[in-house]
Task: structure prediction
Amino acid sequence: MKNVLIFSDLHLTQSSAKECVLILEEIGMFANKYNVDTLISLGDTFDSIKPSSLELDLLATFIRRINKNIIILAADSHESETKEQSILNHYGILSNNVKVVKEFKDGNHLYCGHFSIKESLSNYDAKLSKLDFKNYLYVFLGHIHSHQLIKPNILHLGSCRYVNFDEAKDKAKIVALITNYNAEGEKVHFLKLQNPIPMVEIILNSNNNNKLDKKPENKGVAEPSLSSNRGTTEPGSGKNPLNLRDCQAFLDNLPPKYKIKVKITDFEAFREFLPLCHKYYTKFETFKYTTDFEVISANNQKCISTEMTSFKESLSNYLKNNKIDESIRKILEEEIK
Result:
């Protein structure tokens, strides 16, 4: 191996197919630009142990077009029915360029795996610690979607697209490039991906006066640097909730290619925001809201679920879960058709 390109946690699904194609094309572009001869996927290439034919075809097309050696980790979490059986095994059978493994080791120089360790920010009952990998020069781990450096030699590279909204704080999605691998002048670079659709999570509250004066930026990591680049909090998230006016201004100014989640913390904000949901549901690549409170009806049933994607869905669930006068039900059902 001369130059090695490493990426992780694509979580390819049918709904994300267009985004994933662009990301794979960008990874292929990096591979050609930097004369990469080996690519390593750190696992969770698929999001299901039984991916659809579309998902299978997309990865097969990438492998055929890239025409380079590819090492793919078959993660236990999403891609393997057992330790031995994985849908990814078929790619190793069909192409001599593809090697499917549970972990990858190259002497004491490089280790690649798909799991968390005790020092990971999210450790998921990890049994191993950084001391178990102290003899390796580089350790690249998948599974955790936000990149994290565990000094001195371990890196969670992070997912190569925004998969879950707890990643909204990440300022960029990256791949790792090792040039002059295991030779004089070896160097690790981090390359920012341009095609992941950015995520923003906003907290909406009717009882605050926080101002919003700019839309969020999605800046990448500086390269080359083996430093942790935890993203900064976006306006309206964390400890800085927005009122309805500023939340609406923020969403109106964002381009459509965003994944948005609005967390609503009180009923008054929910009541004011609900009529706007359809507008944003149709505007953005992904739009959803969650409620951080409960409203209970007279018959002690919850009226509002914790997560909705549209006003239509919200009203449909209400009609489904509550007993109301049939004449009123018919009118409401007509309204949501």
